[in-house]
């Protein structure tokens, strides 16, 4: 199974974003991959955002397979700073994702991603596409009422569900995107950090498994979520 191996924050204010996430998530966030929002993305109207990269053996083959299923490549394939090659795509459901080959160097601690959530214009098609391309497996399907129907997936062979796909139809104000949940020891003080820095918070809310989450935007308006609870 192919997995997300790297997250990158593309933002309008790199120093402010690094300070914000370090205060929110601890010293591990000081080593996060935070870069300026590319001019081409800003010209398309893209806001600041977290971009996930899935590791693949052959970037060109992954791009062909994605585009054959309705994805659109955004810009040319290019070398990655640490080696390997990278391509950015808009998937068939409208979310942005990266595919990359890269060496696996020793890395400093990073913020822990507790859940990977894909909001898609056609959730079933999106789920099938990712399973076909990356070897993921579908798991439970849960109706969380106002939060939509979540089709869970497994992308690590040694773990249970690691994320879910949600259809944006019927969810007011939600666009297609990947939303990454960062784990925190305690949700309430973390949300206070977000609010005091000028970010926004929706929630918190409790999930059926007892975890508590809140969906947030940082001060530069990049979306993310915070999650308190035991790993699934």
Kindly describe this structure:
It is globular, with a radius of gyration of 17 Å. It is 21% helix and 37% strand. A hairpin with a 5-residue loop joins strand 9 and strand 10 (149-154). The strands form 2 sheets. It has an 8-stranded mixed sheet, covered by helices on one side. It is an alpha+beta fold and 232 residues long. The chain contains 5 helices and 15 strands. The chain has helices spanning 14-25, 39-43, 59-68, 123-134, 187-196; strands at 4-11, 33-36, 49-55, 72-73, 78-79, 85-90, 96-100, 113-120, 137-143, 149-154, 163-167, 177-183, 200-206, 212-217, 223-228. The mean pLDDT is 87.
In short:
The protein is of the alpha+beta class and 232 residues long. 21% of the residues lie in helices and 37% in strands.
Question: What descriptive keywords fit this protein?
Answer:
232 residues, alpha+beta, eight-stranded mixed sheet, seven-stranded mixed sheet, 5 helices
Question: What's the SSE blueprint?
Answer:
Blueprint (H helix, E strand, L loop, with lengths): L3 E8 L2 H12 L7 E4 L2 H5 L5 E7 L3 H10 L3 E2 L4 E2 L5 E6 L5 E5 L12 E8 L2 H12 L2 E7 L5 E6 L8 E5 L9 E7 L3 H10 L3 E7 L5 E6 L5 E6 L4
Parallel strand pairs: 1-2, 3-7, 8-11, 12-15
Antiparallel strand pairs: 1-3, 4-6, 5-6, 6-7, 8-12, 9-10, 10-11, 13-14, 14-15
